[in-house]
């Protein structure tokens, strides 16, 4: 059974640019959550989508946005990148909104 | 953002030793989750606890949901080299099962 797939795995951007990260959940999973992981702050919840609707949102500025498509694939976008946005962005999927989270390997973003 | 207090921050032990780590919060949690993250991977759920006082095992791992509902403990018995990784506690704040709050992790190194 294929796991959660995140692309790209690594990317480097410069301040002011924008970035789009992609997540393909496990087949049959309809809930997708996004987390930002940094050494100093740990894992911080960004948002969660279920059936193309955002159900929960963390305390991140509006530069962070996401969406989910009808096939449950999800994307997150960060605009006007700042140095502090450098982090590992993790996507997790689950069958239902209360089910166990299965994480992908993450997309490591470096902002120069 | 809000975080759980996890300790110790890191541990370096000899193979065969037992390991204990804990997680505390200033607020009550209804669920405690323990994850392990290995380099280049996303976190993987080890044990989930749903009831105060609950003691649950998964092989050599045992976790407990504290009676006060403000803490949880994870023990690893007879450690082996593949136990190396970062162990995270996580939990949803009361009333919101999806916005997991995470500890900063306990980094475990095992000397063969």
* Number of beta strands of chain A: 11
User: Biggest β-sheet of chain A, characterized?
Assistant: 7 strands, mixed
Largest interface: A-B, 24 and 21 residues
Strand runs of chain B, count: 11
* Stretches with pLDDT under 50, minimum 5 residues of chain B: none
Largest sheet of chain B: 6 strands, mixed
Give the SSE map.
The complex is a heterodimer of chains A (112) and B (112).
Chain A: E1 5-7, E2 10-13, E3 19-24, E4 31-38, E5 42-50, E6 53-57, E7 64-68, E8 74-78, E9 87-94, E10 102-103, E11 107-111
Parallel strand pairs in A: 2-11
Antiparallel strand pairs in A: 1-3, 3-8, 4-5, 4-9, 5-6, 7-8, 9-10, 9-11
Chain B: E1 5-7, E2 10-14, E3 19-24, E4 32-37, E5 44-49, E6 55-58, E7 61-65, E8 71-76, E9 85-91, E10 101-102, E11 106-111
Parallel strand pairs in B: 2-11
Antiparallel strand pairs in B: 1-3, 3-8, 4-5, 4-9, 6-7, 7-8, 9-10, 9-11
Descriptive overview:
The complex is a heterodimer of chains A (112) and B (112). Chain A is an all-beta fold and 112 residues long. Chain A is built from no helices and 11 strands. Chain A has strands at residues 5-7, 10-13, 19-24, 31-38, 42-50, 53-57, 64-68, 74-78, 87-94, 102-103, 107-111. In chain A, strands 2, 4, 5, 6, 9, 10 and 11 form a 7-stranded mixed sheet that branches. In chain A, strands 1-3-8-7 form a 4-stranded antiparallel sheet, with no helix packed on it. In chain A, a hairpin with a 5-residue loop joins β7 and β8. The termini of chain A are far apart. The mean pLDDT of chain A is 94. Chain B has strands spanning 5-7, 10-14, 19-24, 32-37, 44-49, 55-58, 61-65, 71-76, 85-91, 101-102, 106-111. The model of chain B has no long low-confidence stretch (mean pLDDT 92). The interface between A and B is medium-sized, with 24 and 21 residues.
